From TrEMBL:
Keyword presence, Transcription: yes
Domain of life of the organism encoding this protein: Bacteria
Transmembrane regions listed in the UniProt entry: none
Species whose genome carries this gene: Roseateles depolymerans
Protein name: Transcriptional regulator, Crp/Fnr family
Record carries keyword Cell inner membrane: no
Sorted UniProt keywords: DNA-binding, Transcription, Transcription regulation
Stored SUPFAM superfamilies: cAMP-binding domain-like (SSF51206), Winged helix' DNA-binding domain (SSF46785)
GO CC list: cytosol
Any one GO MF annotation of this record: DNA-binding transcription factor activity
Matching Pfam families: cNMP_binding, HTH_Crp_2
Length: 262
């Protein structure tokens, strides 16, 4: 469901690295169809098996792709922030997504009708190149996450997960997150997350209060994480633009921001 909200400042498509890399000609064709939306934490953008007519380009928001078994067990298979887009499987011809898309961190995103992006994608050029490069990165993330969940300790998984969130928060070192949510993302028991968080806090790496985690020592957290983060980080950085041009930063376009409660 979509409901109106207080107007947010979103007059230009800033904050998403994919959009920032598109040439002006391609971006100009898409701008009239982009809509700035405020994604509310915990809301479902689409369910597994239910095609969405839209794709989303997160700016300050973060979205988790979650796979749920028939028995009800769930685990995050990918995390999407300002480096990417949500709904790429539909863009590539998938009739329905295999996972559910849930907003993990509330914030701004840009919503675009799938058919508009498909038309631009089929033109080829830099739009196609950046999207395909992102698809390859997301596939790498999914594969590495599967290996990590199977072979690494919960504490090391937690370090990796926290660092991945930080990378998508534009420099913010605090996370608004509960242990229950982390447990659902990692597919483990909440008690295990509690014990791992306590050890990290005792080591001076994080400070945990109910519903909030502050990272106090990022280098220490990286040293404690499994090798999966070190392998994924260069791939994530490869998606970032060398520089966001002034032309993109000053593009004028009108949006109608709304709060998506889906």
């Amino acid at each position: 469901m979509v409901m109106s909200s207080t107007t947010i400042s979103a007059t230009v498509p800033r904050g998403n690295y994919l959009l920032a890399q598109w040439p002006q000609e391609e971006l100009a064709r898409v701008l009239p169809h982009l809509e700035a939306v405020e994604l509310l934490k915990g809301r479902v953008l689409f369910e597994a098996g239910a095609p969405s007519p839209h794709v989303f380009f997160p700016a300050s928001s973060i979205v988790s792709l979650i796979y749920t078994t028939h028995a009800g067990a769930s685990s995050q298979v990918a995390m999407i922030g300002p480096e990417g887009l949500v709904g790429v499987s539909s863009l590539l011809g998938g009739e329905s997504p295999a996972s559910r898309a849930v907003v993990q961190r509330a914030g701004l995103a840009y919503r675009l009708r799938l058919n508009v992006l498909k038309e631009e994608f089929l033109r080829g050029g830099l739009v196609t190149h950046t999207v395909l490069r992102y698809v390859q990165s997301q596939m790498t993330q999914m594969a590495q996450t599967a290996v990590c969940n199977r072979h690494h300790s919960l504490e090391r998984q937690l370090c990796r997960w926290l660092l991945q969130v930080l990378d998508r928060q534009h420099g913010h070192q605090e996370l608004s997150v509960t242990q229950e949510l982390i447990a659902n993302m990692l597919g483990v028991r909440r008690e295990g997350v509690t014990e791992a968080a306590q050890r990290l806090q005792a080591a001076g790496l994080i400070r945990y209060t109910r519903g909030h985690i502050a990272v106090l020592d990022r280098p220490g957290l990286e040293a404690r994480a499994c090798e999966c983060y070190a392998l994924l980080k260069p791939d994530f950085q490869r998606l970032l633009p060398q520089a966001v041009t002034e032309t993109h930063a000053t593009t004028s376009a009108a949006f109608a921001p709304v709060a998506v409660q889906a």
